[in-house]
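JOB MANIFEST
job_type = single_chain_structure
chain_count = 1
residues = 468
[input]
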Amino acid sequence: MESICPIDSQFSREISALLEPPSAHQQQEYFDNLIRTRQYGGLKVKHNGELGKGVYADSDFGEGELVLKDQMLVGAQHSSNKIDCLVCSYCFRFIGSIELQIGRRLYLQGLGVSTSNGCGRETFSHNSLDHCQSDSSEDGDNCYMEKHDELGECSSSSSKVKVPLPEGVAEALMNGESSLPYSEKFPLPSTITCSGGCGEAYYCSKLCAESDWESSHSLLCTGEKSESICREALSKFIQHANETNDIFLLAAKVICFTVLRYKKLKQHLREQEKFTSSIVLKNDDLPLLLEAWKPISMGYKKRWWDCIALPDDVDGCDEAAFRAQLKELAFTSLKLLKEAIFCKGCEPFDLVVASSVEDYFLYIDDLPYPAKKTAEEITRPFLDALGDDYSIPCQGCLNHSCCPNAKAFKREEDRDGQATIICLRPISKQEEVTISYIDEDLPFDERQALLADYGFRCKCPKCSEEEP
């Protein structure tokens, strides 16, 4: 017998309305208005009968030219990747210092904590890291490891043998007691701590900290100033997500974004004396809820457990049981989140951030002799100890191609919480703007397997040419 989520049965009408996909006309109207009000030059969103909606050039773009820059709705750093990189929890920019980034990763590596490799595609077993503590001001330069707990059981792996460093070297880098040559050429913003006191979220600026708080973190913060109604339940929700699938953390941001947006809309109407103070989330509030959900609804397609691809190790005859298990995980996650954030009034690009660490080592490699030799005598042991991975995955939203003409990329000048799309090659008027959701250099079969979770089989020119 199929299990029924209590929230499904209690609010069936509201949920049905929320999950009703907008018509093609409604979507077109929404995006036309978005482009007009935000003054996106040279772009047009339109529907393709086979691929759905897509972004098309309405004028010519040159290689390297900025195509689009806009605020992301929600985004999250993968739990596993938090071990590799310390980034702003809102805009995902590298923060701290080159020494902190390298030292912190080496420190965790020395503890046997897993990196982004080796943990499987669907499940993770990492808790949030309390990476560092700093002044909450813009000029707080020192950052140090404060604590760590239950960091995971997967062992790190790399194609390169890692050479251990002497004891205390990583800590010295993290705590600012040791410096690396030429690191001053790669300055990073100081870390700003979460105002709620959770010790888990860090930011590159007060603006990002405030924006994240207003968007979703005020309900997801585990600190003393959290607006969650039950921090114990919230901690249980986070633990469940880290032990099962960190997609639930992203889903929580979507829900909190909607809840907070709904509350703002409701308060605005109350101030206009159009609603009484006794209103609760019932029939009269549904239009407000739909308006708060509208930005998310424009991208929503199916429920997670219905659209996720069947793993290779699950037989086709077991598909129903597999999806039922995912559904139960999602129900458990939602129940925990509901206990943490819902009050009586409130009854979803890979973005690549330029790695300052990678840029630093490339800079050292390009130095002229003998400066290169002198610098490498200091930096080579750290490079040998680190291995060779430096990227931050998040979520993409333009249509995919394995031979894309653009990429989601955060440049040095992009110091805010906005998503940035850059041309990889010239884009002509009327041509669709595409990015790659995966590593497009992978073999054909591997690319198709990775794209299966997005619910389509890629038929781009590269795949059409390589398909057996």
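[summary]
The beta strands are 43-48, 52-57, 66-71, 192-193, 202-203, 352-353, 406-410, 418-423, 432-433.
The chain has 15 helices and nine strands.
exit_status = 0
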